[in-house]
Amino acid sequence: MRGFTLIELLVAITILAIVAVLGWRGLDGIVRARVALNAEMAQTRGIQLAFAQIENDCAHLMDANLLQGRSVLRAAGSKLMLIRSVLEDNQPLRFQVIVYSVVDGKLGRRELMPTREIAALENDWQSAAADTDVTPVIQLQTDVTSLAMRTWTQGETGWRIDGTDIQNAATDGAAKNPAIKSAKLAGLEVSMQVQGREAPMTKVFLLGAS
Question: Where are the transmembrane segments (predicted)?
């Protein structure tokens, strides 16, 4: 009975080595694709959760008539500030300042203590604007390269960049006389650019929709 020659064994070993290398490369490619897909899905979930939180806050935006001549929302640069209403069980209606900001590529949210006092609310707004409050920051998204916002005011025909609130200095008359109401701010557009994505994720929120 004839056995294998040395050349035949070398050829067989070479073929097996080639098959093993091709199989390893294919498996490595699958693993890398899976890791990248999982990272992208986690990133997408983070953005969706951040947008969901912004949507909830915008839906409970404080009625500007309660703070005539003062800000209830400010969307400028990479910082969003707003005052939302808080209604909890066995608690009277209260209001709190909410701040979203991007610092070192991280989108964070912080909420100041709810209050019923207008003076306290104004102080909270000023301290939040100056970033002098000591409220803990909850991180919502990392690797944020930019955050752009625009507002939509009823009666206008286009988006406004760096828009402010509903009744604050929209007209000279409204600034001098709080009883004069300016057009109501109705929408907020937020565009978030995250590292590794070709285009930013954009969403429009209705203000005071609840």
Answer: 6-24
